[in-house]
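tool=predict chain=A
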Amino acid sequence: MRFSVRHSTLYCYSAPVRLGAHVLRLHPRKTGVTILREHLRIEPAPASQALSSDRYGNRVTEVTFAGATERLLIESFFELETAPAAPVVGLPPLPWRAGGDMWADFGGEAGPKVRDFASELLANAGGDALVFLDALNQKLFARTQRRIRDAGYAQDPEETLTRANGACRDLAALFMACARSLGLPARFVSGYQAQAETPDGKRHLHAWPEVFLPGAGWRGYDPMHGCLASQGHVALCAGPDQRATMPVEGGFFGEGVSSTLTFELEIAAS
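tool=predict ok
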């Protein structure tokens, strides 16, 4: 599948401010895709700009600024082609024994309600890891009232499970907690997907979980849409939680100054 994405973020300030250093996580991850072209536009022009990779394999741009400004525009554009995920076979039955370097980064504890919920699904799956993950994906899709929520971090997984209501990041966090309760390393992914999420077609950043499967690597699921995260998804950033995947991270200096944020996101996929 071919993706074309243009994502503009504009911060406007009520008075001139000095911008602090910013970290931008707006480059598509290179795994499973062929990048045809990409461009990052920043205004005002940075005093310094450096591209590097973080500990989780994300490409990040670090920028600093000089002087004062009343606005900050960040626009990313890229075109790429995605490829289907490879089939997964030969997994040992769940639960798995947690531990090791992978678990140190992508493991974690789960609350009692989440553990019970995951255990019931596992029993119905007969311990089969792939059957469990597919059932978890479909169960969260079917039982949750899904909605768009523009601001805020993901809810606690127990809250999302109890209320059966949440945004894509809430479902991602709940899926991860269920997987981790059975010894499956899981991570949070931020990016784009081909399917429009709102009746008017307005696009938003998307979030979904990935689990690490021995011999197969990371495999993505999308409980917001009840499907695998595969050719119709483009990952920007992956980390142990949402806070490690924020697309723009930084601040400004200006006493008594307020700011507003607007964004435009255009996605074409075919």
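Helices lie at 100-106, 112-124, 129-143, 157-163, 168-180. Residues 100-230 form a domain with the C8orf32 fold fold (CATH 3.10.620.30).
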